[in-house]
Amino acid sequence: MSEVIQRRLVELLAEKLGCGTGQIDPRARLRDIGVDSRMVTSVLATIGAELGRVLSLTLAWEHPTTKELAQAIERYGANDGAAPVASVRSVGVRSRGAHDDPIAVVGLSCRVPGAASPTEFFAMLSRGENAVRDLPPERFDVAALYSDDPNASGCASTRWAGLLDSVDAFDAEFFGVSRREATHMDPQQRLVLELAWEALEDAGVSPRQLRGSRTGVF
Known about the structure:
Helix content: 25-40%
Strand content: under 5%
Order of helices and strands: HHHHHEHEHH
Distance between the termini: 28 Å
Radius of gyration: 22 Å
Structural class: mainly alpha
Strand order of the largest sheet: 1-2
Largest sheet: 2 strands, antiparallel
């Protein structure tokens, strides 16, 4: 089974990297062949959906080659009550019936410039505030980079921006992410983790009770 998973991993990685499957060495470290955290997240999500399992993102950091990762995926969740899998891509998608309930929004979360929650965002909108501000010195040395000539090479032509606050703050331990992995994660991935959790809290849903349920994160 791990050979089947390995071939599927190679197919998906080749698609992401824009190369042929023969150019991916199963024994090479994923980082060394140009695979970044966003690619890993997408590939694991696809493989997990096809196997009918929820795969931990830490698998790719603990098993950094395609061969090792395929073997780890084969073992992962095999003894936790997950249904046996005959082959990859065997899981069907339930068609939507005529009597299914409509989609309802029951929880919200957001991060936008000037607001760290839906409540703050709506308040900012109601006050008509502009979240664009001067670039803070901790982000950029504006004096050194700014030029009023928009064609100047290597310079910024503005002193303002719409920025999120505290993008460097992340509670890796809370999400079960190792420090090593956290230092290489895309900031957008960290934000998705935080926002997904906050949206579930806002809806009054326990995230830990969703394991094994028909729940997706998109």
